[in-house]
Amino acid sequence: MNQDYIKPDNWSIIEEGFDAESVKSSESLFSIGNGAMGQRANFEESYTGKTFQGSYIAGIYYPDKTKVGWWKNGYPEYFAKVLNAPNWIGIDIEINGENLDMNACTEVTDFRRELNMKEGWYNRSFKAKLKNGTEIAVNVTRFLSITLDEVGIINYEITPLNKDAKIVYKPYIDAGVTNEDANWDEKFWEPLEVKHIGNEAFVTAQTFKTHFKVTTFMHNSVLENDRNLNLSPTNFDTSADKIQSSYAVIVAQGKKSSIQKIGGYTVSLNHANTLTAAEKVIQSALAKGYDQLLQDQIDAWAKIWEMSDITIDGDVKAQQGIRFNIFQLNQTYLGKDSRLNIGPKGFTGEKYGGSTYWDTEAYCIPFYMATKDQEVARNLLTYRYNQLDKAIENAEKNLGFKDGAALYPMVTMNGEECHNEWEITHEEIHRNGAIAFAIFNYHRFTGDYSYIPEKGLEVLIGIARFWHQRANFSKDKNQYVILGVTGPNEYENNINNNFYTNYIAKWCIDYTYEQIKKVSLEFPSDHKRIIEKVKLAEAELQEWKKVADNMYFPKSEELGVYLQQDGFLDKDLVPVKDLDPSQRPINQKWSWDRVLRSPYIKQADVLQCFYFFEEHFSKEELKRNFEFYESFTVHESSLSPCVHSIQAAALDKMDMAYTFYLRTSRLDLDDYNKEVEEGCHITSMAGTWMSIVEGFGGMRVKNNALHFSPKIPKEWKAYSFKINFRGQILKVDINHSETAFSVDGTEELTIVVNNNAVVVSPYNTVTVK
Amino acid sequence: MNQDYIKPDNWSIIEEGFDAESVKSSESLFSIGNGAMGQRANFEESYTGKTFQGSYIAGIYYPDKTKVGWWKNGYPEYFAKVLNAPNWIGIDIEINGENLDMNACTEVTDFRRELNMKEGWYNRSFKAKLKNGTEIAVNVTRFLSITLDEVGIINYEITPLNKDAKIVYKPYIDAGVTNEDANWDEKFWEPLEVKHIGNEAFVTAQTFKTHFKVTTFMHNSVLENDRNLNLSPTNFDTSADKIQSSYAVIVAQGKKSSIQKIGGYTVSLNHANTLTAAEKVIQSALAKGYDQLLQDQIDAWAKIWEMSDITIDGDVKAQQGIRFNIFQLNQTYLGKDSRLNIGPKGFTGEKYGGSTYWDTEAYCIPFYMATKDQEVARNLLTYRYNQLDKAIENAEKNLGFKDGAALYPMVTMNGEECHNEWEITHEEIHRNGAIAFAIFNYHRFTGDYSYIPEKGLEVLIGIARFWHQRANFSKDKNQYVILGVTGPNEYENNINNNFYTNYIAKWCIDYTYEQIKKVSLEFPSDHKRIIEKVKLAEAELQEWKKVADNMYFPKSEELGVYLQQDGFLDKDLVPVKDLDPSQRPINQKWSWDRVLRSPYIKQADVLQCFYFFEEHFSKEELKRNFEFYESFTVHESSLSPCVHSIQAAALDKMDMAYTFYLRTSRLDLDDYNKEVEEGCHITSMAGTWMSIVEGFGGMRVKNNALHFSPKIPKEWKAYSFKINFRGQILKVDINHSETAFSVDGTEELTIVVNNNAVVVSPYNTVTVK
């Protein structure tokens, strides 16, 4: 943990001073993205120190051949990998004949990075003394345009400080890139064509196997004191997969020289001819020019913040942390394209193949629903609808289900499973439940029922069929059981009757049954179309209901808690507080069998059920289960603290709630797990948002209304957040004495605060003590 | 399954006719070995068809770097692999300028292989017409000497049939060999020295990492009509890792030419200077000459058969099957060296790294005890004693145990774990029980208690400590439980309270406790030495006893059976007979999760307990448990049928017993699983022996006496076997009307037949109706 490395600031992430050992971590933290592409904060110029190069294009992946020690039936043969894309940011720089490389300079001073989250740009500046004695000042600004989302731009400025300098700028595009994490040292990119005209250059390459075609492009302008010199390149070096141009200038001491490089990708997902498209994209960018592109960027981010900002008064680190989380979520996914989803590392690293986990439904959708237009959450639901056929195929071909039962993959890019550990891939089936729950949650929050007859019902039917077939009747218990699963707590494998799984299975069937009935009454033509398509007879429905109505739930009457699984009470129930701290984290200190037979819990499991279905249980039940299970929870998943924080707040355990909140909000900025160099924990960032809004703010949606029960950690003076509820933006300002509600819109909004209805009218802040 | 491919014969394995598609399978079936080395039946001359090259040296292995998809704490970094050793059998042959290659001949006729099990040699003969029109007859005999166990010999005869022939023999040694099954395409052998003198040549190489040094040698003599021509090689071709000499002869039509090649290995495990040793070994072999070496071989095998033969009258395929099993077991392990053990593929293939599984203790030791001198079984026990330190280290460093608790590896070569699936490696801990049971079984059978105070007690204490620490107290059950294990039925993983594991855990503690008390009384100085060495206090013993005395065993009072594990009765209990045959074998047709939640059993689990501890249970209990569990058993392990065969015989289900017997005895000869090309199933062959002796013959050892309850399958006329019991060889002849007992020795032997004592005197066959 490095709590003091990143400088506290309300709106920016700031690093000061050059530390070669921190380069890889900072490359993650200062990553930029615009939903369509993203990149780690690699240096533009050459760097021979330790670095982890990464540029990523949304939706572009490669099926890496599966590598396992022992093959188990049902494993997929390929694993869709996040792919390191061709590099367009590179600019080699020669200063008086010497290649600029911070790792080789005799001195580097005044090094500073800033990621300006308010305006959406990344800046790096430093002074360097080269071996040849030339001293220079460098200032580089880079951003990926949100308005022109195939374009990024770099403004690279050099000022010779102690003498005149001959500067040669050598910007390049390189498709000869590899992944750090690949199973078989295969090449992923096949170069197709290299082309240049004037200041423009293009490398077209396609991925092996998946055949995504990508044109990576650049356009370069060299300026002196911000005046375009209209230089043409003196030279082009080309190879099969790389092109590099050269611009030479003589710069007087103290004068500022710069190169502006426009770059990016056009991809065959969006264009029939990626090369022509790239030429057009460059023209659009040039027509705007650097200053206008930057202003557009600032405006676009202002709009994003307008809807999604959270302010925290009196705690700059907490303020910086929550904004970093909101910023990264928006860099990763903007919701424009239902083919995309939210990868666990976003565009900040390549670890974990695939882009989509149940994190999206369980943790991310609430954030996007409340901070974007409803179309964004609907696109995330549609993503699963579009992959329904593959989920059915997966259940049938790999796992032996039938008649349209669907099991969504644990991890996916294109609908196919991307993970190979039987205990996860084949047994962590509760993910299917979260996908159904998200449909319910979307309707609950937005009030938009149309998604269900249009698309959602088919997904629900596939999922309900899966649960019906997956449960079996236990003669011994005279009830239905679900054997051999892994629950959300992945520190238990192949367990029987995981309470969470059994509960959500029953809920899925019941909810689907209700929706079928509702659609048949309210949308009869959709009902007819769907029932014919999926061949669903009333008799099958009655079979489902038998399972749902007779589902077994393990519990302890004595302790008054549901049991995480059968046999949980056989464990050696030593609470975490009595565990020798030298043994933690247990997933690093203990062999896997020891983790499994211990009572320790990685992330909310029974409590995840209480989170999703809070209103099904009494507060007393929540309290007993929370106190029992939290005492065994080691929170070794970044997704763990948020649910506990929300529940602790609901139970008036505000100190505990605040401690949990702190654990996530600066997880990456303070590098708690010493792994941020691999990339940031994007999906858990949505949990941080939930901790504030649902936890401290106590926001819920019940009966088509927003409910709040505002609380505030004693460490803060005040905080505020905004909720986009059914087209109106509600702003909530909370301090220690009162909460103020105001609405941005033209209609009044009735909310419920601490169980009392409150009418919030436009232009009229309502204060509740 | 290819039931008619191998010709039925009482004493030989015979293949007739050349089938290129069967070459790899026959290479396995016709493998030869002498306990110290072994080799697949690869052709000596060039062969461009499909082949799987394999020569193996006992005790020589390579630590292959572990390859897994997802690393789990506690996995070993390396995996000891059976290593393909340098090839010394190769002889390239030129006939009138054309290289002999059966795959390139215009015609191959009269192809025949014979593995003569009675005499221990392998012969191959064929006629071939080469592209150049020359027709030849070839006859090759090869064996690995049992008396000089570093030596093998080949007599390769060629007779030109239709014209005179210029024959060039080009025998070679090649250390440039690789494994088919390796994780990282690494080279395993580093060549050190190549040397030749006269007709002798030597290649010395060492394994990377393990640094076993091996000199592979050859000596060649060329003969005409069995007369040594005393030729010297005309040429030597050498490279860094290969040497090849040439001998040219002109052979008249109809005359027989031959080359005799002596070859083999001297290894640094046995010699300080392997090169000098190789020179001496060649001299010893030459001093004997081919004919005497062959006669010694015949004599040595006669001695082996004298003690271990089983005859079956009236069923030649069953006769051939059981002899093949006994022959292969003796080829694999002769018990001379306590550093060696019985690999699952013996010297017939390289699949599965490591050499030692719990198969040795559970299945092989009974065979070796009854068919060899007791020293052999004692060597197998000593193998584990010598690896005790590593078992303690494994438990401590990898798995978090302490104070001298020992967990033996699932698979090992040198005491270190060679397997990486957490559900097996870390959870299939019952193996520790079999290792303790073998100590008990050795004493029960041989009456030799000395092993326990000398060595066995330390092993028992390490194992008892493991069980004591591995169990935990369940407040819920108010008993000790063992959570998170895999039982002998590997179709269940991470289960709680596997009956077999809990039972053997309790038994290990109780047995160890008794032995400590006995040794303290009868061998006080050993007791003192051991207790001081292992630091065992009486208080710790009392803690052990608490666990043993309060161990929990799952059972169903209603069904009158012990439960394989907690929750077994929750399964969908469809017996195997009602399972759609298209779904079998389930381990090939079903995904792993489906296998796990099914009730289907791979091999005896609860019934393994009834096998080991038969006298602890009533026949009625055996019957109920057998009938319940066998109905769910799919027998998808080669180790499964034997235990069931023995129990079916005990329950007078002779048809069932015979069916189980058939399943194993010709498993490889008839290639039931279509995988014999990978090698033979060596360890399960001991189970076949058990099926006859303990199953049909009903042999048990109780109170220092052999007990029998002879039965005979209706398909046989008669059968006989021999038991080496405490220095006397008892022969048992069983037919449908009576059983005859005779003893080879000077003292009378009291046995118990169908619960009646019978005295068998030397030179006096006793017959029991």
How much of the sequence lies in strands of chain A comes to: 15-25%
Ranges of chain A where pLDDT stays below 50 over 5 or more residues in a row are none
Going by helix content, strand content and strand pairing, the class of chain A is: alpha+beta
Supply the CATH superfamily name of the largest domain in chain A.
Glycoside hydrolase, family 65, N-terminal domain
Task: State the end-to-end distance of chain A.
Answer: 39 Å
| Count of runs of 4 or more consecutive helical residues of chain A | 19
In terms of quaternary structure, the protein is homodimer
Q: How would you sum up the global shape of chain A?
A: globular
- CATH architecture identity of the largest domain in chain A: Distorted Sandwich
Helix content of chain A: 25-40%
Mean pLDDT of chain A: 95
How many domains, in number, for the residues of chain A? Answer: 3
- Rg of chain A, Å, rounded: 27 Å
CATH class of the largest domain in chain A equals: Mainly Beta
Give the strand tally of chain A.
33
What name is given to the CATH topology of the largest domain in chain A?
Answer: Beta-galactosidase, Chain A, domain 5
Domain Glycoside hydrolase family 65 N-terminal (chains A, B): 14-268
InterPro entries (chains A, B): 6-hairpin_glycosidase_sf, 6hp_glycosidase-like_sf, Gal_mutarotase_sf_dom, GH65_N, Glyco_hydro_65_C, Glyco_hydro_65_M, Glyco_hydro_65_N, Malt_Pase/Glycosyl_Hdrlase
Protein name (chains A, B): Maltose phosphorylase / Trehalose phosphorylase
Binding site for substrate (chains A, B): 358-359, 602-603
